[in-house]
């Protein structure tokens, strides 16, 4: 194999795998904290994607890196609000089991 | 790029293996504390991948924000809600697992197929600004991305106030749903769960 650098596809495959692991964790976790962790994994997969495209396709203007910084900002805000909601839920229902949060079930 | 190509390949392989195996550990391990620390490892490895892509500023931001803030926040949340509880068994858990796993694997194969078959319009490496990326990010943030930058600051303020309001301890003298007086000292250990009997 005679390559100049790491192919773009390698980064894309890693990010796809990370995204699918995040979705699996989101669907299958019983613990609400683990659901938040899965969301963080998915956001990181998106960030890897943006960074890889910014480095391989737009390597002069690097707008993908700016987008990644905004995604990191929103992820931090989301984590803070999500964990506050989680604490409030725990105070009301004394559990973090996702199956017991069924007030919105119809 | 300055690092030799073999070193880059070795670094990339190790970092991606740590990312994938760590992420699997995050969703599969029984203990939530191990999951939280593995999540920190995954964040660090993603920062390493950013360094391989010539993005030192974003790598530093990743370490500071994710490992320094989000991961610590998650560990604090685990510490606050870490109660041993026996989960109620779900009767159709098997079929749910099978369906969700097959959906995830289908999505993964679709994504990998798109990654491999699409012809990407790669730009030539000599246009790359490489190590100058921090300067270019600063130029972007203060010229064409100035409005999103300012909106992000408002968003962070809103998130901060919202988190404080949501996580604040109630100081009312009466319970809203039951009407009973609230024992202020034992507010974390309320004798009966407030909402569980409503459904």
TrEMBL record, chain A:
Classification via HAMAP family: NDH1_NuoK (MF_01456)
Source domain of life: Bacteria
Record-listed E.C. numbers: 7.1.1.-
Organism: Prochlorococcus marinus str. XMU1401
Xref: Gene3D superfamilies: 1.10.287.3510
Protein name, UniProt field: NAD(P)H-quinone oxidoreductase subunit 4L
Annotated family: Belongs to the complex I subunit 4L family.
PANTHER family from the UniProt entry: NADH-UBIQUINONE OXIDOREDUCTASE CHAIN 4L (PTHR11434:SF16), NADH-UBIQUINONE OXIDOREDUCTASE SUBUNIT ND4L (PTHR11434)
Mode of membrane association: Multi-pass membrane protein
Keywords, in A-Z order: Membrane, NAD, NADP, Oxidoreductase, Plastoquinone, Quinone, Thylakoid, Translocase, Transmembrane, Transmembrane helix, Transport
Gene Ontology BP annotations: ATP synthesis coupled electron transport; photosynthesis, light reaction
Pfam family for this entry, one: Oxidored_q2
């Amino acid at each position: 194999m005679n390559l100049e650098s790491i192919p773009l596809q390698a980064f894309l495959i890693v990010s796809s795998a990370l995204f699918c692991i995040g979705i699996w964790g989101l669907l299958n976790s019983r613990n609400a904290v683990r659901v938040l962790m899965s969301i963080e994994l998915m956001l990181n997969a998106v960030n890897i994607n943006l960074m890889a495209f910014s480095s391989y396709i737009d390597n002069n203007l690097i707008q993908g890196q700016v987008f990644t910084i905004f995604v990191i900002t929103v992820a931090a805000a989301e984590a803070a609000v999500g964990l506050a909601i989680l604490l409030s839920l725990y105070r009301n229902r004394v559990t973090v089991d996702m199956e017991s949060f069924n007030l919105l079930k119809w | 790029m300055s690092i030799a190509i073999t070193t880059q390949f070795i670094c990339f392989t190790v970092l991606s293996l740590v990312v994938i195996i760590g992420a699997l550990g995050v969703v599969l391990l029984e203990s939530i504390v191990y999951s939280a620390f593995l999540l920190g490892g995954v964040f660090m490895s993603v920062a390493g991948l950013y360094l391989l892509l010539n993005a030192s500023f974003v790598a530093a931001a990743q370490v500071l924000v994710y490992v320094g803030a989000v991961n610590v926040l998650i560990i604090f949340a685990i510490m606050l809600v870490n109660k041993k509880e026996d989960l109620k068994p779900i009767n159709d858990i098997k079929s749910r697992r099978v369906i969700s796993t097959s959906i995830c694997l289908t999505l993964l194969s679709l994504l990998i197929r798109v990654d491999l078959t699409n012809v990407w319009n790669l730009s030539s490496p000599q246009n790359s600004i490489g190590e100058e990326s921090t300067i270019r990010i600063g130029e972007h943030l203060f010229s064409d991305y100035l409005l999103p930058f300012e909106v992000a600051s408002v968003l962070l303020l809103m998130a901060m106030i919202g988190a404080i309001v949501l996580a604040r301890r109630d100081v009312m003298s009466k319970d809203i749903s039951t009407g009973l007086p609230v024992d202020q000292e034992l507010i974390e250990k309320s004798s009966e769960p407030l909402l569980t009997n409503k459904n």
